[in-house]
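Data availability excerpt. The first of two example chains:
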Amino acid sequence: MIVTTKNIKNQGFTLVELLIVIVIIAILTVVSLVAYNGLQNQAKTSAAKSAADAVAKKAELYNTAKSKYPTGLTDLTNAANSGEPYYLDSNTVNIGTFATPPAAPAEANTIEYVPCPTTGDATGAHVKYYNFSSRLVEERKIGTGC
């Protein structure tokens, strides 16, 4: 078989074809990474909101039992209260505070609990959590004192 110049040129891909394939793969990679990060942020926000809801429910149970809201999360997570309906396992939430401007906490279930009023018996509270999608601190108000 005689190999001619025409046969050699028709073998393989051209440089332009290879570059087009590489660019398409790069675009698909970037799109999938952005979508994945968005899903991660939604999952973290969901976990934070669930932790805030759990704290709010336990604080309401505490109010029902003691006729006042807890002065802090330690009132709910104290091991001495483990038999009470308002007891909150300390592994459920991470007690923290949020700076201004807010920075993402290390743990998705970080909750800030602020009683209202801050002196005397609390008649309500702000339960704050971090929204990883909007990068803002959101809060849920409970009781009548806030």
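And the second chain:
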Amino acid sequence: MVLLEDFFAVIPSWCIRGSKPWEWLAQLPVFFSGVEWKIRSNVENAALINAEHIYIGENCTIEPFVTIKGPVYIGNGVVIRSGAYIREYTVILDHAVVGHASEISCSVMMEGSRAAHFNYVGNSVVGREVNMGSHAVLANVRLDKKPVDVVINGKRIETGLEKLGSILGDSSTVGASVLLNPGTIVAPGTGVLPEGRVLV
């Protein structure tokens, strides 16, 4: 059995304990149904789409030319740099960083995580204090459009999901220009080097 608790030290209250990591994404509508939508930081130079379903916490830095399309939740102290695109059903928790030209879609970025330079994060869960190098990509759709499976300890597990990116455990690192295929699982504290080797 592979559980959320195997990858993340802190499980938000809206998540069902004992569920599989990728099932977290299916629980996002539950989270969004309880959000009191407010914008508590300066966003005067950002483009907000479906703004009535956007929450932005205090002390955030939202640089010019950022696009945010709700429903989106952004915690406190988050930095979103110029040219970033934050798409629907994304949760970005406190003190995370989304860099220039990075795109985050239908994903969770936990506290202190960084997708700071030209990254794509789709249908993924990024743990606390994870760092993604420049141009690292978490792909979320198979070329043949078949449901995404995951492989853990040599065992293939069917998720039934047409879109699933990566599960990055707490304090893991993804090197520059690494492409992670749909359904990639990275254990906590693991490093994925640019040439594709995995350090544990």
